[in-house]
Write the structure tokens for this entry.
Amino acid sequence: MTRLTEELIKDVPSKVNSLDEELIEKIGMDMREFACYSMGVKKKDIVFEDYSVAIVPVTSGQGVIGGFSASVAAAAESLGMHSFVTRSCDVMGISEAFSSAADIIFMADDDRFIALNTRTRSFADNIWATAKGYVTALSLADGGLKGKRVLVIGAGRVGSEAVRILMKEGASVEVTDIIPRRAEDLQRRHKGVKARPNVDDAISDNRLILNASPGLISGKLIQKGAVISSPGVPYAFDEEGEKRAKVIIHDVLSLGVAVMAAASVSLSLFNIPAAGVVAERLVIE
């Protein structure tokens, strides 16, 4: 997964509320309804206002990304949650979050970004949440995915998780990567997945695309009327690609955070099936 930079996320706090209008236009739901829908529950079923969220900066590895904690806080607040960034970092920050009775603690290092539910002692992971959110967005934008062919670009952590989720949705999945063996590994692991060795040909052949790659995509490769869900950063599409595509769904951070928040809350409220995938794969109790 591409590491975010201060430049990539600098506009997240100021633009997060405008995402509602964009999402309504593209998938027919605002952020709050979308996050709940991703977990299989209705908007009315989760009262986000009942939850306090702490964001703990983590200094290990390459260190804190400037603006990251504020961006996560803004995304949580856009759902109605009460959020704050701890004054301290690392273990002191976690201690501060618990002392403040935070219900959910967001924290990230170089390898993992999680939302820890302090009530259930379980966590939702950003890799799963991002894949789940963007598969859900693609499905909403095209009226479902069952029986439809979907290309996943990028066989990294988000792309690999997206392949697994798409298979459960009943899609016919193709996957391509600039390192062909990665796509071939997914083909071996998942019966029915087809690895495409030539990235450009794979893009040209598919109308439905989930882009989990940081690479730029030439607009001449995009089919007219394509529906694209793109968690990959930086933004991958040129002006020609935007004109050819019917819909491009892209956001740097907020969609993934919203699904993480809904998943973490669901762990408190429901006896899974809503958070079943999280519990099955990504929750430690």
The mean pLDDT is 90. The domain at 6-126+254-281 is CATH 3.40.50.12150 (Rossmann fold).
